[in-house]
Structure formats: C-alpha cells, structure tokens
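Batch job 17 of 40 flagged for manual review because the log was empty.
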Amino acid sequence: MKTLQKTLLALAVGSLVSVGAQAAVSYGSGYVGQPYVGIKAGQFDLDYSGADKPTAYGVYAGYNFDPNFGMEVEYLGSDDADYRGGDIDAKTYGAYGTYRYMFPNTALYAKGKLGVARTEVKATGAVPVSYNGKDKDTSLAGGVGLGYAVNSDFSVEAEYDKLGSDADLWTVGAHLKF
C-alpha cells in the first residue's frame, strides 16, 4: 500500500477512535451520542471473469453523533468461491461517515455512507492457465441502504456498497445500540 494511502487510512481510523471515545458527550439539542455494534452477511460481486460470488460475513461498529450523522467501521471476509478450477475469496476493511434519514411517522430509514475501504482479493485458478494472485486496493468507497428500527436499541439493515472499481457488496445485517 502506498504511503499516502496508509497515512489517510490511519488518520481516518484514528479520528473515528478518538470521536468514539467521547461517547457520553451531550450536544446542545440534548441528544447524547449512541454507539452500536452489529453483524452482517451477504455477497461480494467481484470483477473477475468466470468467478462465482463469494459469501460475505463480518462485523461493524459505529457511533451516532445525532439522529442523522455518525461514523462506522467494518470488517467483512468471505468463504472460498469457485474460480477457473481454483478458488477466490475477498475481505474488506472500511471507515465511513454515515447519514440517516428517518421517514416521517415510521421506523424506516434510509442510510448513506462515504469513506475509505481497503479490499483484498486472493485468487487461484487453473483454467486456461495456472494463476495465483492477490489484488489489494485502498480507495474511496460508499454505500446506500434501508433500515428498520425494531425498537430503540435494535435495528436491521439491507445495504449496497461500492468498494473501489473492482468490487460491489450486498449485505443484510443487524445492530444493537447501547
């Protein structure tokens, strides 16, 4: 990874951690920030000709500064999927700023996120020639989704993420606020 990319990723994660450490800060509106943790599963859509889509699974954590704005970090890995007589798998790490729009008089909300993600894809294949490689990409990433607040402490979400130019990710997940 290039030095600039490492520096930007370290600054983004460091900022998120320092902000998360201030979880009990009360804002002028009386809103007290709310941290959450969750799990998600779905499917990677990788730009590899002839590759099956690996199943994704992972964890995420976030902090809502107010009802609309927050931040989130996540890690997702995958199982091995078939690729040209071999296997392909992926993993991604991300740090994002988030925005939630609560639809009036419902528990539904729309979610958008924008940040930095590192995606690593490892592929081995035998057809038509032997291949063993690893692609790594750190880039701007973002996503959109829909969520439903089951109650004040538990929500479920469906999400689509664009992870650079070679990977898309579709997930469903649930998180617990505390």
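Reviewer: the log was empty due to a logging misconfiguration, but the result itself is present. The radius of gyration is 18 Å. Unflagging and moving on to job 18.
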